[in-house]
Each structure stands twice: as C-alpha cells, then as structure tokens.
Amino acid sequence: MKKLLLSISAITTVVGSLLLNSCSTSQKEEAFNPKFKLTPAEKITFNSFVDCNMAEVWVGDTFRIFPGKYGEDPLWGYAKDLKYADGKNADEVFKSTKENFRSPIMPLNAPIGQEGLHGAVWFETVYQSPKDASGKTLYSVYHNENYPQTLPYDAKSGQGYKKDKWPQGLTGETSPAAVCRIGIMKSVDGGKSWENRGLFIEDLNPRMILKPHNSSNTFAGGVGDPSAVASGDYLYLFYGEYGYPGEYKEATYDAKTEWGGQCISIARIALADLDNPVGKAKRWDGNGFNAPHNGIGKPVSSLQIPIEQGGGPASAPVTGFHWGPSVSWNTYLNCWVMMMGKTEGKSWKGDKVYISFNKNADLTAGTNSQEWTKPQLVFDKPGYILWYPSLQPLNTEEDIKDKNTCLKLGKKARFFVKRIKPGDDSYASEHIIEFEK
Within 13 A of 83's CA, how many CA atoms are on the CB side? Predict the structure, then answer.
C-alpha cells in the first residue's frame, strides 16, 4: 500500500510538473504575438521595372538596389531591365529617376546544348560577404526561368524540358508556361559586374505538371520567387514550391497530393559553398535539411492553406496558396518577419498580402526554421493583382546608422508591393508599417 501511495504521489508530481510546463509553454506561445498596423504615408512610385523581390545592400555608405530582369525569354522577348541605382539612403534610391539607373555587366546566355546561363534571371536577394571589409563581395540569389525552347530536354544529363503536353503560358494558347530555378551570381566590385556561379536548387522534368491538369497559365513547375537570409553557417532560402511532389503521371495525378507538396518551402546552403553552389542546397524533408537540391522536400505546414479553407494546387485554375516570400530580421521584435502574397486564380491573380512571424533567432536548430505563425492579412486592394510585397528601411537616422535593408529592419518600415491592373503596373508604397510587441 505504501509503495502504491508513493507511486501515486510520484505520478501526481510528474503530472503536476507536466501541467506547469504546459502552462508555461502555452503562456510563452501566447506571449509571442507581434502586432502591426499600416498608416498612410507619402506615396513613392518606383521608376524602374520590378517583377521580383527587391535585392539591396549597403556598399560602404552607399545604399544600392538591383531591380529588374535580364536575359533570353521567348515569351516576352530578350530583357535588359536588370539595373542598379545608388543613394545616401533608401528613400533617395526609391525615388530615383529612370536616368539614375545603370546596367551592370552580366554574363551572356549560353547557346542551347552548352553549359552556362540559360533563360532570364531576376535578382531576389543579395548576401554580402562579411569577410570583405570593403563590402564589395556580393552573392546574388537569382530566380531563373526557362522553357522547352531555351532548355530542351537532354536525356544524358536529365536537364531540360520535353514539349509534349506542355502547359499554356501567360500570353495565350500558343505561349509556353515557364519553369523556375534558383542560382547564385557573384560580384567583387559591389554589383557593377556579375559572374554566374550556377544553380543550387531546381526541379527536373519528371516533376513538371502538364496538360490536361495544368491550367494555371504560369508555371509548369519548379522552384522560384525566393528570399534568403543568413543564420549561423548557412544561407536559408525561402521559396515558392510549384512542382509535383513526385513524378507527375497523367493517369495517377491527384490534386490533393499536388497541394500537399506546395506552398512556401525552405532549403539551405552552407555559406562556404556559395562560390561553388551547384547542387549544394538541401531541402527540408519534414525532419531536417536532408532532401537533395533536386529532390522532394516538404513546405512549411503552417503557411499552407487547408483545402477546406480554399487551398488548392498551383496548377489549378482556382488556386489558394501563399507565395513570393520576403523575409527580414526585425531588431525591435527580435524575430523573423515574412511578407507573402496569395494566389486565388489563374496567372497568379490575388489582391491580398499576408504576414507571418518566427521567434527563433537561430534557424539552424531542430525545427526552428519551420516554426512560422499562421499568416495574417496585412493589406488588400480590390481590383488589383498584388505581387512581391516587401518591407524597406526608412529615411531615418537610426535606419541609416544601422544600415538597414529589406533583410534587417526595426520598429517601423516602408511597405512596398507591386500592383497591377489595366493602366497601372507599378511597384509602389503608400503606407508605413509599425510593429508592437
């Protein structure tokens, strides 16, 4: 009996301890609930082409940005819109006139069948090497798009895409959908010239989603629209996952299976591998960063929209998923902040912007990189298509002194987003976002 009573007492103590720990954990979780509000501000309309996240960096006392697109594109034509502009602060640069934008020296597209740069590129994030005191050694994370025309299938290498049953693109029935991939370019002169270092994450042809199932008018599949931040010894890549989570086969295609493998995913690459990044990324597979660069990972589950709440696969005519992440470290909240869009129809249509938070400063430990809060609505603009939301530093003494960029911000920031409707295609800001703990 005495042993029984002792056992009961011990069990009670353990249960009590567990309940206390549970309450403590619950209180901590409840305590992490950052608040935000948008307030109207002077409207700033950017005067250069933007169709991506805004890559930017401080080189010494110069704030430099790299918007635009460069390279071959059979859908829209050869692009020379990737530019850079300088200023003493963010406001000065974002208000720059077209005449102040210059073209960097870029690597040429390689001929079909040869190794090298194929398709068009957009710079999405710039990582600045801390080993270079001048600040001029930069690594650009770029979004790359190709088609069967620019990268035809090569059975020997497994690279490229087959034309058979290829889905429709954005400009009509005869136009092809694109495939996106992600790579690295390097500059040693502050971004005035770039050298292609190659791709570090992609999806191969078997994962492309074809006719008759793909009717999104946008992507056949792939990985793209990234944002990247450094944590520990790694560069963490937040990107859109658009391919099938396995080999696509028309006879066995399942829309729910496609949805389950899509949304915003995370991969990482060692900072030491940025000079030679080809194939070096590892994707999150549900337990760790174990999946290969062209393998099958798992998206961030908290960012997925449940099917019963309107979620859907990327290839569907009526979709429902978050995409286009822009991630920054917030020094006031002491957490990571992610801005993102939401698709609701063909051609990536959607008029809402969302926000999510991650309290884990160190993304390298355990499941820290995956622990994002449920997205909350920040902004909507009916009648418009909203793409590539981002937060940008202000023209304040604090932001200039701390050399804040879209990757590191404080209590207040500028909210920018690309807005599209007939007669208005602009990247602009008309609000300040302010955070509260």
Answer: 18
